[in-house]
Amino acid sequence: MDMIVPRGGKGLIERVAREAKVPVLKHLDGVCHLYIHAKADPKMAISLALNAKTHRYGTCNTMETLLVDTAMSESLPSIVEPLLKKGVELRGCSITTELLGDNCSLASPSDWDEEYLAPILAIKVVDGLEEAILHISQHGSGHTDGIVTNCHQTAMRFLRAVDSSSVMVNASTRFADGYEYGLGAEIGISTDKIHARGPVGLEGLTSQKYVVLGNGNIRV
Fold it and tell me: Relative to the CA of 13, which of 127, 135, 155, 220 has its CA 20 to 30 Å away?
């Protein structure tokens, strides 16, 4: 056996990775973030947040934490309204609870690291791009994170700074999928960096063998 690709719960994957004597292609958590930047289109932000969270609750590329720029905080009630209509439970930072009132409970420290796989969403208001990047680096799982913005420079900074296997600009985190990426049937998803990373298809797991046919050729 050359490699194990465990598919299942976190406990199973942790045990396989701990006890395996061969390489394991894996991801343990899907703590995915969507950051709504100060220069985001409000209608786009509402659409992407709704899709990223409610398209399917039990998948590893579902958004679990919504980060909202301070400059967009006044739009937060309208952003979460469709989520509330879908029955999503909201847990937020102190600023979020102040803005949303009874529609949101105060998040505990563990909420920022939680993969809910359920209609529950953590929300945090952040003071700019760098705080959003810092939050993702501290609490993200390296799976999929996205930004909503109309600023190209900000988008490029986010792409470079966020060290996840999939990084999105103005797109739902639900697109992080081997089939959607054109890889054919998805064999697994990896948040490791060696050898394959991100959604992995057959080509990603295929090693190469170089064959050279010569006729007395020498290198000079």
Answer: 135
